[in-house]
């Protein structure tokens, strides 16, 4: 055996650049020669000169020991075929490398062809049975034609295995990505998820634009931009896709044909939904899509459509719930014209205060994303119980006597009862369940001196503690039948002095920050 390491000049490529087929970049197949004899490398390189398979040339890598071969296979997992000598630094160096590749690297894709100049050292039948190899050849029998046949058949097998593996990985990513899409709560979030998953399925950082055409069949071709990534990121700031943009005519073509358009480097996925929306995803992958890629993307498109329909129905139900909440609040406010936009201001201040508390790290177990989504809208139901308060009491311009005060206070319990009955029809947290907590608890005091239950501290639901501050502040700032509006300074002073007594100190702190920032902007 000749263990002399060859000069770097001997480590050359049959094809040192990617093939161009039909104007499309094609990466060469990568082959690794592992042999301690430089002459074997030279002969193999000469024998394989100019060979192509499916329009792709060969890139040859060289290693001169089992350890060198292992390092290359570890660092470059896209090697398709290894022509491996058995006897190198040890009598079984090649066999040991086979085991390490299959077991240590868990690389089941690379095709391994053993070549030996000393067949007696490793009997063919024993090796074929004991080692996961694809062929076993004596160097003397590898004529030019047989070497060609061995290489092409190995590449064909590698290509098939790679397609199966890509399909498996792609389907796994589709299932995982689709599950994430079903958890999206807005169209923008949905768009971001779709673009991210396309990149994951293709295993590239995709540059893309996702648009939607509402009301398919209406004749309108306005394409609303939902999201954009990569070199198209600035398009996310646009409401509609400009007709001058290169993607626009391609999307129109996909709409007209009602099918995806694959025209590398410009690809358009056409995704119709049952809710009469048409999604169009324009993206520019770095290389032409394989048939496996296209099949995976078509599967993902069907999942996108289902996920969007689910999101659409979710949003519609949410809007229906919000409409119901607004109707209930309007019913309570209809009789109380002096309160004006009180409930809308309460909604705004409540949502902003809750968000600020979450940013401060207050009550992290309660200030969940779901709570933050619901609490603002739920707050407008705080006085819904006033529908049962007699006009004589509700509109009295002066101070209530004891009996009238008792009647007035009943609105908290009445509102809670109304909302609790409705909330039981909805599973989990909802506008109604949080609204019921607010209605019942927004007149409770942090020190236990409030009504109707005399609850204290964190016995009072968090949503009610937030609305308690917001409701009093807004009442102080605006005219009521029994009082003139207070100044901002006096109103804030009152809130501060009641911290720890009437109000939760953490709520007060967050509220003062929000109000301070808001009035500073004004």
Question: Describe it for me?
Answer:
The N terminus is likely disordered. The protein is α/β, with parallel strands linked by helices. The relative contact order is 0.06. The chain folds into 3 domains: 158 residues, Rossmann fold (3-Layer(aba) Sandwich), CATH 3.40.50; 126 residues, Beta-Lactamase (2-Layer Sandwich), CATH 3.30.450.40; 187 residues, Hypothetical protein af1432. It is built from 16 helices and 12 strands. The chain has a 5-stranded parallel beta sheet, sandwiched between helices. Strands 9-8-12-11-10 form a 5-stranded antiparallel beta sheet, sandwiched between helices. The protein is 49% helix and 12% strand.
Name the descriptors.
Hypothetical protein af1432, five-stranded parallel beta sheet, HD/PDEase_dom, 522 residues, 49% helix, five-stranded antiparallel beta sheet, Cyclic_di-GMP/3'3'-cGAMP_PDE, DUF3369 domain-containing protein, HD_GYP_dom, Beta-Lactamase, single chain, alpha/beta, 3 domains, Rossmann fold
């Amino acid at each position: 055996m000749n263990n002399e390491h060859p000069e770097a000049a001997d480590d050359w490529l049959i094809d040192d650049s990617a093939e161009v087929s039909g104007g499309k970049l094609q990466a060469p197949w990568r082959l690794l020669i592992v042999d301690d004899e430089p002459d074997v490398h030279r002969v193999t390189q000469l024998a394989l000169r100019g060979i192509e398979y499916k329009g792709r040339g060969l890139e040859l890598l060289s290693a001169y020991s089992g350890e060198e071969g292992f390092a290359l296979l570890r660092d470059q997992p896209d090697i398709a075929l290894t022509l491996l000598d058995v006897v190198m630094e040890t009598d079984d160096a090649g066999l040991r490398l086979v085991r390490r590749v299959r077991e240590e690297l868990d690389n089941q894709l690379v095709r391994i062809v053993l070549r030996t100049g000393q067949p007696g050292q490793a009997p063919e039948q024993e090796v074929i049975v004991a080692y996961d190899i694809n062929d076993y050849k004596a160097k003397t029998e590898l004529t030019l034609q047989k070497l060609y046949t061995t290489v092409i058949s190995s590449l064909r097998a590698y290509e098939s295995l790679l397609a199966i593996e890509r399909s498996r990985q792609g389907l796994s990513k589709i299932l995982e990505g689709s599950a994430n899409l079903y958890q999206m709560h807005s169209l923008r979030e949905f768009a971001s998820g779709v673009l991210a998953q396309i990149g994951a399925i293709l295993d590239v950082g995709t540059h893309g634009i996702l648009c939607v055409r509402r009301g398919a069949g209406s004749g309108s071709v306005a394409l609303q931009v939902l999201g954009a990534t990569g070199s198209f990121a600035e398009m996310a700031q646009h409401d509609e896709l400009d007709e001058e943009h290169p993607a626009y005519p391609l999307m129109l073509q996909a709409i007209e044909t009602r099918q995806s358009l694959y025209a590398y480097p410009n690809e358009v996925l056409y995704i119709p939904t049952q809710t009469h929306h048409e999604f169009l995803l324009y993206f520019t992958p770095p290389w032409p899509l394989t048939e496996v890629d296209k099949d995976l993307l078509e599967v993902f498109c069907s999942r996108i459509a289902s996920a969007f329909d689910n999101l659409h129905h979710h949003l519609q139900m949410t809007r229906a719930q919000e409409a119901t909440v607004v109707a209930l609040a309007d019913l309570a406010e209809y009789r109380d014209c002096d309160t004006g936009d009180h409930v809308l201001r309460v909604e705004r201040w409540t949502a902003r205060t809750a968000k600020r508390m979450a940013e401060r790290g207050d009550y992290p177990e309660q200030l969940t994303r779901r709570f933050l989504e619901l609490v603002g809208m739920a707050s407008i139901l705080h006085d819904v119980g006033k529908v049962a308060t007699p006009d004589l009491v509700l509109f009295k311009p002066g101070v209530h006597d004891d009996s009238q005060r008792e009647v007035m206070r009943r609105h908290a319990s009445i509102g809670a009862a109304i909302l609790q009955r409705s909330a039981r029809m909805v599973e989990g947290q909802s506008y109604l369940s949080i609204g019921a907590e607010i209605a019942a608890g927004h007149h409770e005091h942090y020190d236990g001196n409030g009504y109707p239950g005399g609850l204290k501290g964190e016995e009072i639901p968090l949503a009610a503690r937030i609305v308690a501050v917001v409701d009093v502040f807004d009442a102080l700032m605006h005219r009521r039948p029994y009082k003139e509006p207070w100044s901002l300074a006096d109103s804030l002073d009152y809130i501060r002095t009641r911290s720890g007594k009437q109000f939760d100190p953490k709520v007060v702190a967050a509220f003062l920050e929000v109000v301070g920032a808001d009035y500073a902007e004004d």
